[in-house]
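Weekly modeling sync, notes
Attendees: AB, CL, MP (scribe)

Item 1: holo prediction request
CL wants a bound-state model with pyridoxal-5'-phosphate before deciding which constructs to order. AB pointed out that an apo prediction alone won't tell us much about the pocket. Agreed to run with the ligand included and paste results into these notes for async review.

Input as submitted:
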Amino acid sequence: MNAKPLPEGLHLDTLAVRAAVDKSQWGENSEALYLTSSFTQPDCETAARRFAGEEDGYIYSRFTNPTVASMEMRLAAMEGTEAAIAAASGMGAILLLCMGLLKAGDHVVCSRSVFGSTIKLIAGEFGKFGVESSFVSQTDLAEWKAAIRPHTKLLFAETPTNPLTEVCDIRALADLAHEAGALLAVDNCFCTPALQKPASLGADVVVHSGTKYLDGQGRVIAGAVCASNALIRDKLVPVMRSAGITLSPFNAWVVLKGLETLGIRMEAQSLRALELARWLESHPAVERVYYPGLPSHPQHELAMAQQSGRGGAVVSFDVKGAEPDSARSNAFRVIDATQLMSITANLGDVKTIITQPASTSHGRLTEQQRLAAGIRQNLIRVAVGLEHLDDIKADLSRGLDLV
Ligand SMILES: *Cc1c(COP(=O)(O)O)cnc(C)c1O
């Protein structure tokens, strides 16, 4: 829909503040928030053409709204895809993608380490409707390849993963998918286009939880799918129109404004995370640090090549302590001793967040499943925000010095 005219070849930082729908007749400099459920039509013939999809024009905010369109255009421009479609949440975006691409009998190959609700959605909800799925190692390409069947339609990856920051090779997975006649979708929540552009590495679809770094200040739930014009127009817009997994214009506007500072936030938060990871690695109370920016990370080189030389803003670490009892009590002691950080399972905020995955995000797994996933009782995840690093270290020291 009527994009603002911009010169060719702009950089991500410029697109982040400029890409949007064209301004209204009032010439507003900051993009307007269009809180309206429907749009009036000039006459019946125009209305008929717009409802039939023969002419662009706003109709009804379940599937067309200028504020939402601005967010979609901006995110697509930043990801380097032709188009994007917003959804009510990150999970809503993945639901939209699966509804648009899959039918009974189709098969999905997905990493075992992706966001827990993604596994529940694909294996559980879509399983009920006859979509088959296989879950494979995040990092073992041979396992991905072996899992592909003749009716495999989609490979789904997320990199780096939560909370262990495992990295997979997007280009290699894209090649595998394309050889099999399937599509590769990448959940780019942890890196965002500021650090990693999956489409430039061959991914067909990029999904986002806008709730995390895109908003960046912990205010709204939002999501989006970025892909080609054809995929969005032919496969996803019809589902959105029928299913109504719609992002509200207000939430879209908040994310639109969040995108303006995405580049500098990701840079600043990644730099803090790297320094924190180095400090943790040398701390006597810490057993192991999981951070792609550290040379000790098993996929460090791949991560640096794929993520603009940055590790992202999430650092996880194991505190010392024997499984399970003293491991859990030491983790709780470190977390409960903090006076500054937020104890919550979200991430992607300018406020630093600390959590014990074993009792929160991964609390529904059995002890055995959790250990198989490498998530022990002594694991702590820190999603680094924008506080001064000395204050973050001091906050962690309160508990670490007692372990
Ligand atoms: C949070 C998250 C989601 C789901 O997003 P919501 O906006 O909470 O629905 C999906 N993928 C990843 C990697 C996430 O961290």
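Recorded for review: The pocket of pyridoxal-5'-phosphate is lined by residues 89-91, 115, 158, 162, 187, 189, 209, 211-212, 221, 223 (CB under 6 Å).
Action items: CL to compare against the apo run; MP to circulate these notes.
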